[in-house]
Design brief:
- It contains 7 helices and 11 strands.
- It is α/β, with parallel strands linked by helices and 259 residues long.
- The strands form 2 sheets. Strands 5-4-6-7-8-9-10-11 form an 8-stranded mixed beta sheet, with no helix packed on it. A 3-stranded mixed beta sheet has the order 1-3-2.
- α2 crosses α3.
Length: 259
């Protein structure tokens, strides 16, 4: 038995030595790896690679990229890891045309900014200029245009008022397929309805409506127009009910039809 035990232990000694050697090698490789990682990190933080090299801006349509970058307060050369993303987003959100913003880091030294702008739902005519109106009701006086814009309706006889704020809020809810069919919106208050408006459509029809619940009632417009022939033009009333009243023809006393 003793001899047997001696032989067994002697057989195990080389295996134990090998296992210890392997463990020592693994620890050595681990320490070396950590050492090189630390060296690389030190070199990275001390090199230009750890400084902001690129600021990418996406999602903007009307607000210039340069203006957004200026609002961030960032500059090339700023430490990539010391950037306060929340503060940058807050600074950009102070711009009246920005509705939402996302700021993220992209290794090794890129800051990516994605913005969403408040929609331009109409343009206010004053003299020979056209002033964009945001969905918030804000008039962008600094962005006045000299040429007639085609991406939103024109507002005529309006001023900066509660009516304008409410109209902008309603236009924001109108589907783009219908909004693109509106050419002009006139504020035409009546004794019975101070919020009365008159719309002139790109297809030649006129719409009589009111600001309140306009976004809901204008959705009936395509259905009413589909029931008219190409020769029928007139006023589509959307105040209370929905009906069509044809224009008077020359020599006729009155021509009216309801849909």
């Amino acid at each position: 038995m003793k001899n047997g035990n001696v032989i067994e232990i002697e057989d195990r000694i080389p295996k134990l030595k090998e296992q210890r050697r392997q463990k020592a090698n693994r620890r050595f490789v681990l320490y070396i790896s950590l050492f090189f990682v630390l060296v690389l990190l030190i070199l990275y933080f001390q090199s230009p690679l750890s400084k902001i090299q690129t600021i990418n801006v996406s999602g903007n349509v009307h607000v210039p990229t340069k203006e957004i970058i200026e609002n961030t307060g960032l500059e090339k050369g700023t430490s990539f890891w010391k950037v306060n993303l929340e503060k940058i987003a807050k600074n950009i959100m102070e711009h009246e045309e920005i509705a939402n913003v996302t700021v993220v880091r992209q290794f090794p030294n890129i800051i990516k900014i994605h913005v969403s702008e408040n929609s331009r739902v109409a343009y206010l005519i004053e003299g020979t200029y056209y002033y964009p109106i945001l969905e918030t009701g804000k008039i962008l006086e600094k962005d006045k245009l000299e040429n007639i814009p085609a991406d939103a309706p024109l507002l005529i006889n309006w001023t900066q008022s509660e009516e304008l704020q409410e109209m902008a809020a309603e236009l924001r809810l109108v589907p783009s397929s219908i909004l693109n069919r509106i050419s002009e919106i006139h504020l035409t208050p009546e004794d019975s309805d101070p919020l009365h408006i008159s719309l002139f459509m790109n297809d030649g029809h006129e719409v009589s409506a009111t600001i309140r619940d306009f976004s809901k009632k204008i959705k009936n417009y395509p259905m009413i127009v589909e029931q008219l022939t190409e020769e029928q033009f007139g006023v589509i009333h959307l105040e209370v009910g929905s009906y069509f009243k044809a224009y008077k023809k020359f020599g006729d006393e009155e021509v009216e039809s309801e849909r």
